């Protein structure tokens, strides 16, 4: 699965304060690996918080 296929959704909040990326991956570790590849995060321009989410 390519990186673009792993992004289920992304966008910014309407107030411009932050954004959200929903990754479709098998584990928290897989998500962490993708986030580490994000240049904005790697350079400190953005921060990230990872939460597991389950669709019901």
Task: Describe the protein.
There is one protein chain. This protein has 56 residues and is of the alpha+beta class. The protein is built from 3 helices and 2 strands, in the order αββαα. The protein has a two-stranded antiparallel sheet with strand order 1-2. The longest helix is centred in the middle third of the chain and has 10 residues, at 28-37.
Topology:
Layout: H1 3-6, E1 7-12, E2 19-23, H2 28-37, H3 39-42
Antiparallel strand pairs: 1-2
The percentage of residues in β strands lies in 15-25%
Mean pLDDT: 90
Share of helical residues: 25-40%
Order of helices and strands: HEEHH
Computed over alpha carbons, the radius of gyration is 12 Å
The end-to-end span amounts to 24 Å
Which class of secondary structure composition applies to the elements?
Answer: alpha+beta
Helical element count? 3
Unreliable stretches (pLDDT < 50, length at least 5) are none
Largest sheet: 2 strands, antiparallel
How are the strands of the biggest sheet laid out side by side?
1-2
Please tell me what the overall shape is. globular
Strand tally: 2
Question: Any key phrases for this structure?
Answer:
single chain, 56 residues, alpha+beta, 3 helices, 32% helix
The gist of it:
This protein has three helices and two strands.
């Amino acid at each position: 699965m390519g990186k673009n296929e792993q992004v289920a959704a992304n966008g910014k909040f309407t107030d411009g304060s932050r954004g959200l990326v929903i990754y479709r991956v098998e584990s928290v570790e897989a998500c962490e690996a993708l986030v580490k590849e994000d240049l904005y995060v790697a350079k400190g321009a953005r921060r990230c918080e990872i939460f597991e989410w389950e669709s019901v």
